[in-house]
Structure formats: C-alpha cells, structure tokens
C-alpha cells in the first residue's frame, strides 16, 4: 500500500508543469537541430570546427595545449556534490552516495530504506525524488564568501552528476534545476558569486556514467519511455552508449562552456577505454577541441581535468580521486577529495583540519593541486562541521599561504619517515604524518625555499633539515624565518643539515612553515 508520503509525492509530480511553453519550444528546436546534424555529421553545430581554429579533434593536435599558469599558481579549490541525491542521502544508510542507482538494487540497504521512507520504486522513483529537491535556503553569495574565506582560488559546482540532473538552465533537457526542483539556475548563480569573490570558476561533469547508472531502474519506473530524458533510454546491460546519448553528453558540456565560461572543466570516470562504459574517443577529442578552441578564440587560459592516464599522455590534467602521486612529477596534476562524504550524509564522519592541511602540503610539494569537495544539505546550507573545516584551512593559509600559492616544486618533495602509496583511492591507507616529516616548495623566482614541517617538533627543540645540509653544490642560505613568528630564529648549518631551534610558542595550529632565503651557487 502506498504511504502517505508516497501519495503526496505523486500529487506533487502530476500537478507540477513539466516546463513553460517557451522552454518547450526552445527544447524542441535545439533537439531537432541536434538530431538533424547528428544524422549527417555525427556532431552538433556547437562542436562544429571553425576555419582557423588552433585545435583539431585529434590527440596529436590536442597535445599542443598547455596547462594554464593560473592553475599551477592556485593550488587549492572547492567543489560541491549537491542535487536530488542529497534528499535521499542525508539521513540514509551506507551506499546512499549513489542513491539514484542503489535505490533500485534489492541487495542494497538503500533499496529498503527508500521503500520505507518514500514508497515502492514502481510508483515513487528517482524522478519523484527530483521534485523534493527544493534548495529553499541556497544562497550562492554565502557559499562563495565561505569558499573565499577558506583560501580557495577556484570553485564551482558539480554541474551534473551520474543522475543526469543538470544543475543549470539547460535547453537540452527539462530535467534541470530551472524546470524542476529548485526552479533556479544554480550554476549561473554560483558563477556570478564565485567570480565576484575573485576566484576562478569551474564546473564538473559526471554524466558520462549516466548510461549505466540507471540500468537497475529499468525493472521499475525507469522502463517508462516518457522518463528517458532522466533515466536514459532503457537498454540491455552490455549495450554500449548510443550515438544519441553521446551527442547529448557533448551538447550539455558545450552548453555550460558557452553559458558560464568556466576556467576549468573536470570529468569523472567515463572517458576510459572500455567500450561498454565509456564515451568514445571521437567524442572525447571533440570535447577537448571544442573547449580549447573556445578558449583560444576568447583569449582564455583553461584546463580539462580527468582521471585517465592514457588520455593524459595526450592532453589534460590528470586527476586522482581520493588519492595522489607518491613522488615528485614534472607535470601538474590534481587530487579530488572531500571533507567527509561526497554528498551530505549525517552518519559519515568528517576529516580534521590537520589532516586536510597535511594532505594539501604533500600534494603541492609533488607539483599537484587539491580540489576539495563539500556536500551541502538538501536545503542548500553548508553543514556546520564542513564550514568549520573550511574556515580552519583558511586560517592556516592566511599565515602560511606563501608556501602554497604561486609556488613550484623544489629539487625534492620532502624528507621524513612517512611514505604513503600513490594512485586513486589510496588515501584510506594513509599513515599520519609526524614532526619528522617535512615537505618543500619554492618561490617562482627561485630565491626562497619553504620547508613545511607537518608536526610541531616541540618548544625549544632543534629541528634538522637534512636535505639542506652544507655540501658541495648546495645552495647558500642567508636567512631562516618561521612564518607567523616575528622574533629571530637561532639556526646553523653543517654537513648534517640545517639546524633550527624552535621557539617556545607555536605560530599557528597544524603544519609549520620555515621560509629559507637562498642564493644559488
């Protein structure tokens, strides 16, 4: 028997207009144009090359693109997993981070949770959860102000997650935040607020996996063709994505680029080389070329982050989900991780400021940047725990940011006993850093080395930095300061290393930065 909540959901769904007449006409026009061109060329007009464009849709041509200098300088950014998934995830059991998929899997705890809270999946599906996502307390200005206070230099939303719900005002689907749920252009509001606070704007795309994500729904309400715009057209589990699906994938990316002009776009898995799970290379190459050419025509420096080494051999910024490089590498790269769960989930613990600062320092020392996720509540507010973490990082960066922003790697990333493994999803095996672990960066002009000590050695103790020992060919050191500490330090240098006597009072919480002025020999 359908619950009262389920009946209410159905009433809300059937009483709500699908979209305005103006939007319907616009969507039909865009779709007709898209499919007409698809039949003749395989790509939309939005991705048609213009004469004189610098980049062609080939790996050879795309390899000419360079990582933007602003990205190499920025080091720290924030993005937000937020959308209809949050409605189910907030109070749900384990596994709800993929709510729209797992709610249709009988062997998942999310399946029974959904039935008890919302109703039978044949009657109350993910399409109905969309209508409960109201974002009634969302304030883009509040978010942007918090992100700026955290010290982030770039920020933006998950523009579209695996659930295929667009968080912008889209002409290619009516399953978007303007037509359903909040009835607001979330991406547009954030773009204005984030730029107002001096940060670069980014958008992330996860919809390459939408083709697979809703396959379990086809045994329930997902089989209904009238919901194909959300669930994708019902298909066999092993069927590769259709050209129509990939056309939609590309069109949505290009639409966000043209409407909101992001400085960086980021892609979740889905650009790999497994045919049944991925966007084909032809569409991948077109996406890169479209974005790079748009940037070139508009004199913009942009980057594309993704998770695939075989593509990185040609172009883009390599990203590691909840992991990082374990060594210093010559190319810029990115870690995407989170303050806690991806989407807001009350039952999942958060990390500490100390953990996040140490990881940020470790990443930067190896030529990387960190993209930190925050999962807002369904109503649009940032959870207090997450807010406190971001402000804590901001306080640390206010004192020690010179060792992070606008820096480049030194000749070695660090020293000390703690060595963590590299690669995606490796952070769960991380060992905590100690006061013996030191990470290095250098100023862009090469005149300063920053030695970041990842734990307080103790008041009055002598810290030895062995990588700066007085040996043939080593740099000359003219001064040593502790950021946040105004008094002079006692230091000396010999063949064992640079020895610094620590002051009696900590200059800040968490990691501690020694600013070392050098003269190259």
Task: Give descriptors for this structure.
single chain; 521 residues; alpha/beta; TIM Barrel; Immunoglobulin-like; 2 domains; eight-stranded parallel β-barrel; six-stranded antiparallel sheet; 17 helices; 32% helix; 17% strand; globular
Q: How are the strands ordered across the major sheet?
A: 1-2-3-4-5-6-7-8
Q: What is the CATH superfamily of the largest domain?
A: Glycosidases
Q: Tally of extended strands?
A: 17
Q: Mind telling me which CATH architecture of the largest domain this is? A: Alpha-Beta Barrel
The CATH topology label of the largest domain is TIM Barrel
The main sheet comes to: 8 strands, parallel, barrel
Look at the structure and give the CATH class of the largest domain: Alpha Beta
Residue share in β-strands: 15-25%
Number of domains: 2
Note the gap between the termini.
Answer: 81 Å
Flag low-confidence runs: 1-46
- State the share of residues found in helices, binned by percent: 25-40%
Helices, by number, come to 17
Let me know the average pLDDT.
91
Structural class: alpha/beta
Question: What is the overall shape?
Answer: globular
Specify Rg, calculated over alpha carbons: 25 Å
